[in-house]
Structures are given as structure tokens and as C-alpha cells.
Amino acid sequence: MISEKSFYKTFALLTLSLALQNLLTYGVNLADNLMLGSYSETALSGSALCNQIQFFLQMLVVGASEGAVVMGTQYFGKGRFEPIVHTIGTAVRFGGGIAAVMFLLILFFPGQILGLLTNDAAVIAEGVKYLQIICFTYLMFTVTNILTASLRSVGIVKIGYIISASTLILNIILNSCLIYGNFGFPELGIRGAAVATLCSRTVELLIVIWYLKYKEHSLNLTLKKLVFIDRSYIRDYKRTALPVLTSQAQWGLAQMAQTGVLGHLGAPAIAANSIATIVFQIITVVVYGSASASGIMIGWTIGEGKEKNIKPMVKTLEILFLSIGILSGLAIFLIREPVLSLYQISPQAKALSMQFMAILSVTTVGTAYQMSCDNGIIRGGGNTSFSMKMNLISMWLILLPISIFAAFVLHLSPIIVFFLLKWDQLYKAIPVFIRLHRWKWITKVTREEAA
């Protein structure tokens, strides 16, 4: 274990800052979830399916931004800022292209896409109302998140939770007005939630533009710098980012497939999955914050040329990850009933929610360890392809085939199917542990400075 207090202070500050940002970001979805849940179970289920599409986009955005973060942290460790700007510009181009394709698909084929996730016509009808508005947020969401994520590589994390806090407050106010028709506003139901999110995402982008123009002085990012990049860095970015992007894309698709499996088991299963997923996301913000923090710190250390410090860092981080996972799992288990008391849902949906969250309280411990070691330490160390290969095998050759067989051939209960969709969080700890302790993942992804 590392004894220096500075290590724990840096880890705690980064983790809590990123956790707060994640908490506020997920709070937007939770606000929609709670308010639509008390408005109509069908509206809740419809928005839950749409959020899976949003989650897929988010995974792609993470993939696009992580390439810039991995490269940026190592360049920052070297004290070189100009290459960071070029990698951020490249990431914005890639992410913007992805968002544009997603926008066009959703704009023209909303019903067909939702039909892949459920066969409930009423749920699809509600979801289409939401998607036809929310798709206009995709490009703004992508640019905002790539820029804020990229700033983490140089230690700037405060802007992330400032943006997320502003979005959450605005979203709650507008939801209250537009979903229910309060304060003289029209009652728009699920459309109101979509309009509220569209307004919030617009404000997010305006805040990050203002911050970059007037407050950020390390990179001095401007529109001109983001557009006129050194194209030679595109090759470096592709080599680092494409494995991450591929991994995140197939993870997002797999999550949509999981939702599709549960979606064909009835509206109560959709609602229960939505509630359990939101609770999991809220409680595990520290888990994901610690993963991102460890990736940043590992990248800085490699960039500084201090590889001898890596082993004690890793051993310390492993213990921290397990401790955070146990506490997070316990929290999920204990808050089940208080959370469900906030929803107006059927007894069947409530019972499924209780059982789904009990399962997540166990699998969260595995998530905290294997995901943080994989997406944090190993990816932060420059090895971005391991996660892609592992998840390709896990998701498409093990998890989904077994779950689909259990649901549609054996007709097992939604509880067993849900567990089979989540147990990979436990067994993936084995290959991650083996990979981590072989120490072959430490890779420099930066160029040497020209003489």
C-alpha cells in the first residue's frame, strides 16, 4: 500500500469530483424517471427504452473522448499541451460524426428502432413521442461531453459538475412545468420531459463554450484550434481510440439487447429494469469516478516516466476499488424500499424492482473491481484493446446467448433472466486480474518531442 498522503488526497479529490459530476448527470435521468413514473407507467416504460438509445450514444461518446483522455494524460505528464489540443479536435470530429448518424436514424425511424426493444405498442407510441424531440440533443450532448471529458486530462474537473448541476436544476423545473402542466404551462406528458431535456442540453453547451472562452487558460481552446488540427495526430488518435470506441459501441449495443430481452417480458419488467438501473447508476457514481480517477493518475505517472511507481499504485487501487464496491452494494440493498415508495407502479413492477436491485447489490462488487481495473488502470496505462476483446467474447458468446435461451426457450422468470444479464460483472474479474498482474498493459501512446 502507498503511504504518501498526497496520493490519497489526489485520488479522493478526482474521484469525488467525477462522482459528483456523474451523480448530477444521472440526476437528470432520475428526475425524468421519477416524474414520469408518477405520471404514467406507460410513459415511464417508453422513456426507459429511449434512455437505452441515449445510453448507447453515451457509450460511443465515452469511446470517442477516452482516446483523447488517455493520450492527453500522458502528454500532460510530459508537460506538453499542444498535442492535447489536436487530439481533442480529432475526438470532436469523430464524436460529431457519430452523433449526426444517430440523429438521422432516430429522426426517420423512431418506431422501427423502438420495435427492436419491445413489442408493446403502447410503450412504443409513448417512446416515439419522446424520441422525436430528444434526438435534437444528440449533437449538443456529444460536443459538450467530449470537451468536458478531455479537460480531465489536464486536471480540470470542476466545470463538469457545474454544468451537470445547472442542467439538473433546470431539468427539474421544466419537468414540473411541462409534464404535468403546472404554473400555466401545457400538460405535455412524456413530450414535456423531452422538451425539458432539450433546453437543458442547450444550456450545457453554452456553459462549456463560455468556460473555454473566458476561464480556461491551460489549453486556450478555440473553435479555430478545434477545426484546424494537425492531421498527423489522427493516426495516433485512431490507434488509441478505435479499440475503446469499438468496446464502448458493442457494450452499448449489448445493453440495448439486454433491454430488448427484458422488454419482451412485459411492461412491469421494463419499468422494474428502468428503476433498478437508475438506482444502480446513482449509487455507483463513486465506483465510476474512482475508475476515471485511477486512469488519469496512471496516465500522468507514465507520462512523467515514473513507471516504478505503478505497481504499488495498482495494489493500493485494487483494495480501494473492492472497498468502494462493498459499500456501494450495501447501499443499493438498503435503499430499495425508500426509493420504490416514490413511484406509482403496479405491485408486480414493484416486486421485480426489489429483486432486481438485490441482484445488483451483489454484482456491483464485481463491477467496482473489474471495471475499474479494466477501464481505469489498464486503459489509462495505454492498453485500450484488452477491454474490447474481453467484452466481445463475454457479451456476444456467453452472456446474451445464455440469457436469450433462458428467456425465450426455457421461459424462465424475469428475475433469473436479469441475473443472467448481469453475472458477467462477477466472472470478468478473473481475466481482468490475470491481465492486470502480468504488467504488460503499460504502453506509451505519446510521441517524443521534436528536437
Automatic annotation (TrEMBL):
Transmembrane: present as a keyword of the record?
A: yes
Membrane topology per record: Multi-pass membrane protein
- Give the matching InterPro entries: MATE_fam, MdtK-like, YsiQ
What's one Pfam family the UniProt record gives for this protein? MatE
Q: Which domain of life is it from?
A: Bacteria
Predominant location? membrane
Cellular compartments annotated? Cell membrane
Q: Does the keyword Disulfide bond apply?
A: no
Keyword tags: Cell membrane, Membrane, Transmembrane, Transmembrane helix, Transport
Transmembrane stretches, start-end: 55-76, 88-110, 130-147, 159-181, 193-212, 278-299, 319-339, 351-372, 392-421
Alphabetized NCBIfam families for the sequence = matE (TIGR00797)
**Name the record gives this protein:** MATE family efflux transporter
